[in-house]
Amino acid sequence: MNTKYIFVTGGVSSSLGKGIISASLAKLLQARGYSVTIQKLDPYINIDPGTLNPYEHGECYVTDDGAETDLDLGHYERFLNVPTSQANNVTTGRIYQSVIEKERRGDYLGKTVQIIPHITDEIKHRIKILGNKYKYDFVITEIGGTVGDIESLPYIEAVRQLRWEMPDESLVIHLTLVPYLAASGELKTKPTQHSVKLLLENGIQPDILVLRTEHELSKEIRAKVARFCNVDIKSVIQSIDVSTIYEVPIKMSEEELDVQVLSKLKISFKDKPELKQWKTFLQKRQNAKEPIEIALVGKYIELHDAYKSIVESFEHAGATNEVKVKIKWVVAEKVTRKTAGDLLKNVSGILVAPGFGLRGVEGKIQAVKYARENKIPFLGICLGMQCAVIEFARNVLNLQEAHSTEMLPTTPHPVIDIMEEQKSITNMGGTMRLGSYSCKIKKNSNVFKAYNQDLIDERHRHRYEFNNTYQDEYEKAGMKATGINPDSNLVEIIEIENHPWFVGVQFHPEYKSTVLNPHPLFVSFIAAAYKYKQSNKN
Ligand code: GLN
């Protein structure tokens, strides 16, 4: 079958969940046996979100091929259980960069370079490459932002052209909001009507409308939207608020979003999507026994999206263990020798989060100390692992001024130091150690028990590393390097003996946890935390 292109636009408000709707539709099509990929087009001018503060846009998600991308790609992978790549996330900055590079090379010699056709052609090329090169059955392209935004206009125009060029091989789904006015007890469709008008002004007639709502939409409301917006009533799909994003595919299946898509593209179908494993996950999630509380110590705590993949990894690992993981959000800067006991007293596990820069580091180090001394299960990710190494140096090896050269370049004990190949790099974007690298795991370790294999691949995003000149000292004192990169000898995992579960990883396991493949380190961490809670009950 020729690749079919589905465009997902949004109107009325941002944050309606275009990413989750796209991922849910993709899941349903995949569950009918099709190969599907999802792409996000971001209208901002940064080349990628790698240089953005997480407060701006939430977590920066990293793919196997080392692309720093929008957090929606994390949802795509968690839903589809298929890796994404650089091709799945394109920003305006990247589009302009390639057009300008072509202009300098003389590719357009003699011509005026313009938004139409040059920028729109580049956008169309980036959309179609997923079909042409990778031969997916379906490419779902999510257009970031909201219709009417100045910066998303070239994307909307590219969609208009593609719909014209491929009328039978493409369709547009528009996601809007139907607000509820509590005072009058009414659901209002006018914003949706206006939003569709705006799309029509840009030459796009949506084929399917997905309406986000807090209350059930009556048949009358659906009929009204259908009439005003030129769509079939069956193509007015309700997306009602649910308790977890993982229920959205089930809801979309009940609303027959996939059936509408297949019928409009004239693809015959019979069976229902095969969602057995997905439903088992939801069932386990519901069966969850008593809650356990895990502290997440980080510096962007006010914005939970900054730790999106970690939160979702806890969801997957919780369901696997059939426990309800409750996150206690702990602001790193607030953790001191004095406050640690109060802030962390009832938790069954402590996760110290990734991060950059000095702010909050001393608090993270105090949280590590508390976990180590009180034998509370601990997982340190990237900077979290580096903090564990610094804490051990200061309080066990007696190197009181130990630090990372990222925070204190003049430290006499640089136990975490910049990687050799990073020293000469001056550009900021895309220059860290990024993407997938192998790691050899030592047997007789908690991580070996978790993975049950000795060679793994995990994704990275860092500039600093464990300083191998200190390795002997650490090993003798009980902090073991249990995972090493076989090519570069970089320490990727540390563990502490005489502690039930104390693991620090230089990589980011959270990027690889999916519903069908919960990450073994998170699963094992939650199992250890549950055990800790059971044994400390009385
Ligand atoms: N700032 C640290 C480094 O660059 C850790 C990065 C991270 O936590 N992702 O090595």
Keywords, separated by commas or semicolons:
18 helices, nine-stranded mixed beta sheet, alpha/beta
Question: Helix and strand layout, with pairings?
Answer:
Layout: E1 4-10, H1 18-30, E2 36-42, H2 54-57, E3 61-62, E4 68-69, H3 72-80, E5 89-91, H4 92-105, H5 115-132, E6 138-143, H6 153-165, E7 170-177, E8 180-181, E9 186-187, H7 190-201, E10 208-213, H8 219-229, E11 236-240, H9 248-254, H10 257-264, H11 276-287, E12 289-298, H12 308-321, E13 323-331, H13 340-344, E14 349-352, H14 361-373, E15 378-381, H15 383-395, E16 402-404, E17 413-418, E18 433-441, H16 446-451, E19 455-462, E20 464-466, H17 471-477, E21 479-484, E22 491-496, E23 502-505, H18 520-535
Parallel strand pairs: 1-6, 1-7, 2-5, 2-6, 7-10, 10-11, 12-13, 12-14, 14-15, 15-23, 16-17
Antiparallel strand pairs: 3-4, 8-9, 17-20, 18-19, 18-21, 21-22, 22-23
Helix pairs in contact: 1-3, 1-9, 4-5, 5-6, 11-12, 12-18, 14-15
The structure holds glutamine.
Glutamine is lined by residues 354-356, 382-383, 406, 461-464.
Low-confidence stretches: none
Instruction: Please compute the radius of gyration using only Cα atoms.
Output: 25 Å
Question: How many DSSP H or I helices?
Answer: 18
Estimate what percentage of residues fall within beta strands: 15-25%
Distance between the termini: 62 Å
Q: Tally the beta strands.
A: 23
Q: Which structural class matches the secondary elements? A: alpha/beta
Strand order of the largest sheet: 13-12-14-15-23-22-21-18-19
The helix fraction, in percent, is: 25-40%
Distinct small molecules bound, one entry per kind? glutamine
Q: Which whole number gives the mean pLDDT?
A: 96
Shape: globular
Largest sheet: 9 strands, mixed
